[in-house]
Amino acid sequence: MDKKTAYWNVDNLVDESDIYPQTRKSIVEAAELLRNNELVAFPTETVYGLGGNALADDTVEKIYAAKGRPSDNPLILHIADKEQLNDLVREVSPLASLLIEAFWPGPLTLVMPKKQGVAHRASAGLDTLAIRMPDHPLALALIRATGLPIAAPSANLSGRPSPTTARHVMEDLNGRIAGVLDGGPTGIGVESTVVDVTGNIPVILRPGGVTAEQIAEVAGNVAVDPGITSDKVAPKSPGMKYRHYAPAGEMTLVEADSQEQMIQAIIRLAEQAAAEGKKVGILAAEESASRYPEGCTVIACGQRADLHSVAHRVYDVLRTFDERGVDVIFSETFPAKGVGAAIMNRLNKAAGGKRYIC
Ligand code: AMP
Ligand code: MG
After folding, report:
1. Bridge partners, residue 70, by sequence
2. β 6-9/150-151 pair status
3. Beta bridge partner(s), residue 26
4. 250-357: CATH architecture
5. Up-side HSE of residue 250: CA atoms within 13 Å toward CB?
6. Are 170 and 179 a contacting pair, CB within 8 Å?
7. Distances from the Cα of 224 to the Cαs of 76, 205, 236, in angstroms?
8. Residue 89 near residue 112, CB atoms below 8 Å
9. Which of 12, 209, 287, 306 is the most interior residue, by most CB within 10 Å?
10. For 6-229, which CATH superfamily applies?
């Protein structure tokens, strides 16, 4: 593909009232492309999204093609105003309303009953639709300027780590899409939480930026799709069955009863692999990064004491291992609580489920 990809460097806005004239011009140009059924990548508070008109099946087809995404993996629709829901879903249940009030705009995607005849391709033919309102002034201004629901999966090639900067987007999609709005690095760093609200209690289909604990606090109850963690049960969210987010080096997650044992195990594994002539990468928390053997490519991925900082860094770290050309990666593991559930889900996928338990 040999499209000229437009690149707009825009301000890192604080809110939508803060838009400078030059930024406004960029948003108008990007929105015009989207209205003409072209694809434009833009920042959200989670990761960069690859936007396209969700109502036009041929545009949505272009999203699948640009990413190389399996065609049975439905997309999330992004809206800027709650009123847009009326054109997309059959009903907004009391449970859905509760969660919308509490978490929108924000990193929570709701799976709701789809209105007949809309967004057939974006929903991959399912009778439900996944929808969210992002909490990012640029994303909201852009979507609002199009007047459309915007389908926007992460703006990476399928199988690559999700992009948290416009540079990551360009690495994967330059020449394949019409434009990229660069609004600086994204904040949260992992994708939204996907929650099925078609039943009586919320069911988490993909862990993400809003935690299970936060959802339970609002809804009084929360379930987690067993398919997320089990190899035996098929996940309800079609995308969860794919090995996403994978770096090129072979990755192993190292688990132990204590942090010290985990560090010692990684040191042993790293020395062994280095002795076999392999180039070794280690994904570590800042607190323990200095513990590992010299000669290894040790990358600090935020602080263990602040898991949000780990989420913020994780995809960039996975991409950096690719740039450094490591053959194997040994990764520390983190508690799967709060945003740690999303971090461990992504690391597990990056490792293709490969664990070393000592
Ligand atoms: P991405 O767009 O890459 O952030 O991935 C979107 C995630 O939402 C994937 O795991 C999809 O399978 C999931 N998803 C989208 N629509 C639905 C739906 N209607 N039902 C269940 N999961 C969905
Ligand atoms: Mg994705």
Report:
1. none
2. unpaired
3. none
4. 3-Layer(aba) Sandwich (3.40)
5. 9
6. no
7. 19, 7, 10
8. yes
9. 209
10. DHBP synthase (3.90.870.10)
- The alpha carbon of 225 and the centre of ligand 1 are apart by a number of angstroms equal to 13
Residue 324, amino acid? R
Taken as a whole, the chain contains a residue count of 358
Structure tokens at 176: 């394949």
Pairing type for strands 76-78 and 150-151 reads antiparallel
CA 206 to ligand 1 centroid distance, Å: 8
Judged on CB neighbours under 10 Å (0-12, 13-18, 19+), 52 is buried
Query: What six digits make up the tokens of 241?
Result: 């069955």
47 by DSSP, 3-state: which? coil
Q: DSSP label at 312?
A: H
Question: Which of 67, 69, 71, 75 has most ligand 1 atoms within 8 Å of its beta carbon, as the pocket-test mutant?
Answer: 75
Cα of 243 to ligand 1 centre, how many Å?
A: 14
Residue 354: how many other CB atoms lie within 10 Å: 12
- The domain ranges of the chain are 6-229, 250-357
Rounded Cα distance between 338 and 314, Å, is 16
H or E segment and range at residue 113: strand 108-113
Does the beta carbon of 262 sit less than 6 angstroms from any atom of ligand 1? no
* Ligand 1 within 6 A of CB of 45: no
Mean per-residue pLDDT pooled into runs of 10, the chain (358 residues): 87 71 91 98 98 98 96 95 97 98 98 96 96 96 97 95 96 97 96 97 97 97 90 81 80 97 98 98 98 97 98 97 97 97 96 94
Please name every residue paired with 214 in a beta bridge, in sequence order, or none if there are none. none
CA proximity to 73, closest of 139, 158, 131, 149: 158
CA distances (Å), origin 242, targets 71, 130, 157, 160, 299: 12, 18, 13, 12, 26
- Say how many Å lie between the CA of residue 111 and the centre of ligand 2: 16
Closest CA to 342 of 227, 207, 216: 207
- pLDDT at residue number 1: 58
What token pair was written down for 83? Answer: 């009123």
Indicate the residue type of 83: E
Beta carbon of 228 within 6 Å of any ligand 1 atom: no
Rg (CA), the chain: 20
The β-bridge relationship of strands 150-151 and 179-182 is unpaired
The DSSP symbol for 19 reads -
Token pair belonging to 143 = 């979507």
